[in-house]
Design brief:
The structure holds two protein chains of two kinds.
Chain A: E1 3-8, E2 13-18, E3 23-29, E4 34-39, E5 45-50, E6 55-60, E7 66-71, E8 81-83, E9 86-90, E10 96-101, E11 107-112, E12 117-122, E13 128-133, E14 138-142, E15 147-152, E16 157-162, E17 168-173, E18 178-183, E19 189-194, E20 199-204, E21 210-215, E22 220-225, E23 230-236, E24 241-246, E25 252-257, E26 262-267, E27 272-278, E28 283-288
Antiparallel strand pairs in A: 1-2, 1-28, 2-3, 4-5, 5-6, 6-7, 8-9, 9-10, 10-11, 12-13, 13-14, 14-15, 16-17, 17-18, 18-19, 20-21, 21-22, 22-23, 24-25, 25-26, 26-27
Chain B: E1 11-17, E2 22-27, E3 32-38, E4 47-48, E5 54-59, E6 64-69, E7 74-79, E8 86-92, E9 97-102, E10 107-112, E11 117-123, E12 128-133, E13 139-144, E14 148-153, E15 159-163, E16 171-173, E17 179-184, E18 189-194, E19 199-205, E20 210-215, E21 221-226, E22 231-236, E23 241-247, E24 252-257, E25 263-268, E26 273-278, E27 283-289, E28 294-301
Antiparallel strand pairs in B: 1-2, 1-28, 2-3, 4-5, 5-6, 6-7, 8-9, 9-10, 10-11, 12-13, 13-14, 14-15, 16-17, 17-18, 18-19, 20-21, 21-22, 22-23, 24-25, 25-26, 26-27
Classes of the chains: A mainly beta, B mainly beta.
């Protein structure tokens, strides 16, 4: 059984969707205005970044209960990624990534990075944390030393994901309306694929063949065939599509429509919306476990 | 005995609390909160009518704008159906117009402030973050990362000119209208433009993460909040350079100036305070509790 956890920003909850029935299995109350959900490396914990509460709600994946509330996480936390026994929390406005001890939940350090930080993911080894920014660049943090290590030059960047084999990094360039592909080892830019307006979220199929990109201003999802590096279909979804995740068998893609109260379910074979699930106001970040 | 005509320098600060869906009304002389006005979720920068009788609060978590009466200290109307996550409203002192900026849709909603109805939509571009009405009321300048500076005719709402500059995040005019100041967030800098030619005439490095900007009423000084340096920069407009850098609280957001230009008030969104900065001695003279997460600030004279 696979579950999608979606942060519902404007009613302070997380909706849990059963991917077999595509129905809401549970609603978990969290702190004010959760903007993003991340899952721990071992899959036992979920972290809801409460952008309106300066806190992180820690959810147990086995009970779906909030077991802990982390505070002092920065003035507008935008995510929470676990690596090397630490939690890395990008702060949207202060320019820092706050580092917490994952066991004690206490903030131990602040790494100066850049203003308007957005999404963060680690590479497959968990050695490096890649953080995007509405202002510019992709920022790379050495997670062992908790230090900024490098940056990849770019304009505004938003959603990002590693290919299943870890060798390619996909990043949405929000202002230039492109999905860019980088060599994850060398940071070299390999390709830029034009997508719709204001690309935010990205989900990569587990078989390595496709990428699904949410075009927030167009209200669509671009389906990219990676062998040819081109968009093979553009699927209309709801208003302001934000995040995207894909099931392990690559058959369904879930997209939060931040401007509607819904999640679109896309059938990857037919490449159309097979179902629209009504959730709450402002569905935003999501994960699948 | 009648007190009509007696002036007061006493100001109230109306501060939006991003994390509490409210405005705090702060008596600055007494350093205390007089009242809190509930608005809606995630209120951001506040705009005021010219006479300060009305405040317009964009609610990022509610897709609405709260219209607040400063006489009654309450919300008198909520404008619904605003595009996603409004974080800025610009008031035009002419033609009864408001302009609501939406980052996510990249469009400006034009609102008739007499009827509070949305009358029109102006698409600008990706990363729409700022706007200002020229002092003569003829043009509205909008800044977006995609297009740079988009100049809109205030009567027709057509885009009459696009100046393709990079890294444009906010715009404020000098009181005379002869210059405008653009925030370059990536470069940590303010760019100065001459309005008649739309040419950049100066680049002024400031602190990290400049977010807010205000110009003194006589045009001689420009104040910038440096969110990543926990300071404000004081710029001499004639010399086009920073003459003071003043430490304030954590993650300073926006700045408002007292009408006599003796004080600047800065919302410290990370430390839940407002810093009162004495502009005579260029240091913080008071730290007033506010928030949680104070962002927008408008000064209104005590009646």
């Amino acid at each position: 059984m696979s579950l999608v956890y979606a942060s519902i920003q404007n009613n302070n909850t997380v909706s849990v969707i059963d991917t077999e029935s595509d129905e809401i299995a549970e609603v978990i109350p969290v702190g004010n205005n959760p903007v993003q959900i991340n899952v721990s490396a071992d899959g036992t914990r979920l972290f809801a970044a409460n952008g309106g509460a300066r806190s992180i709600s820690v959810i147990s994946a086995s009970t779906n209960q909030v077991i802990r509330m982390l505070r002092d996480v920065g003035s507008e936390p935008f995510g929470c990624v676990q690596a090397q026994g630490k939690l890395f929390v990008p702060d949207h406005f202060s320019g820092y990534v706050t580092v917490l001890n994952a066991r004690t939940g206490r903030a131990v350090q602040k790494i100066p990075v850049a203003s308007r930080l957005l999404n963060a993911v680690t590479d497959t080894a968990g050695r490096k944390l890649y953080v995007t920014s509405l202002v510019r660049n992709i920022w790379i943090i050495d997670t062992l030393r908790s230090k900024l290590q490098a940056s990849i030059p770019a304009g505004a960047t938003w959603g990002l994901a590693f290919s299943p084999n870890g060798r390619r990094l996909f990043v949405n360039h929000y202002v230039s309306n492109q999905t860019a592909i980088y060599n994850a080892g060398t940071n070299q830019l390999l390709k830029r694929i034009p997508v719709g307006l204001g690309p935010i979220g990205i989900a990569l199929s587990n078989d390595g063949k496709r990428a699904y990109v949410t075009n927030s201003r167009s209200g669509t999802v671009s389906v990219i065939q990676l062998a040819a590096c081109r968009v093979i279909k553009t699927i209309p979804v709801g208003r302001l599509p934000y995040g995207a995740v894909i099931t392990r068998d690559d058959r369904k893609i879930y997209v939060t429509n931040y401007g509607a109260d819904t999640i679109s379910v896309i059938d990857s074979e037919r490449l159309h919306v097979s179902r629209t699930i009504t959730v709450g106001p402002g569905p935003r970040g999501l994960v699948i476990i | 005995m009648a007190e009509a005509g007696r002036r007061t320098d006493r100001q109230l600060a109306y501060v939006s609390n991003h994390n509490a869906a409210s405005l705090s009304v702060i008596d600055l002389a007494a350093q205390r909160i007089l009242t809190k006005i509930p608005v809606s979720q995630l209120p951001n920068a506040i705009a005021a009518s010219a006479d300060r009788g009305r405040l317009y609060v964009p609610n990022g978590g509610d897709n609405s704008i709260s219209v607040v009466s400063t006489l009654a200290n309450k919300v008198i109307h909520t404008i619904e159906g605003i595009n996603l996550e409004p974080f800025g409203v610009i008031v035009s002192p002419y033609r009864q117009r408001l302009y609501a900026l939406s980052l996510f849709t990249g469009t400006v909603l034009v609102i008739n402030s007499g009827t509070n109805k949305i009358i029109r939509n102006i698409p600008i571009g990706n990363g729409l973050t700022g706007g200002a009405v020229s002092p003569d009321g003829s043009r509205i300048y909008f800044t977006s990362q995609e297009k740079g500076i988009s100049v809109v005719d205030a009567a027709t709402h057509h885009i009459v000119r696009t100046i393709p500059e990079r890294d444009c995040w906010g715009v404020v005019f000098s009181p005379s209208g002869k210059r405008y100041y653009i925030i370059n967030l990536a470069a940590n800098r303010i760019s100065v433009y001459q309005t008649s030619t739309n040419r950049r005439i100066a680049k002024i490095p400031v602190g990290k993460g400049p977010l807010g900007l205000a110009v003194s009423q006589d045009g001689s000084r420009v104040y910038v909040t440096n969110s990543g340096s926990n300071s404000i920069s004081v710029i001499s407009a004639s010399a086009n350079r920073v003459i003071h850098t003043i430490p304030v609280g954590d993650t300073p957001f926006l700045v408002a100036l007292s009408p006599d230009n003796r004080k600047a008030y800065v919302t410290n969104s990370g430390s839940d305070t407002v810093s009162e900065v004495s502009l005579r001695i260029n240091q913080v003279s008071k730290t007033i509790p506010a928030g949680p997460a104070p962002r927008g600030i408008v000064l209104v004279p005590v009646k």
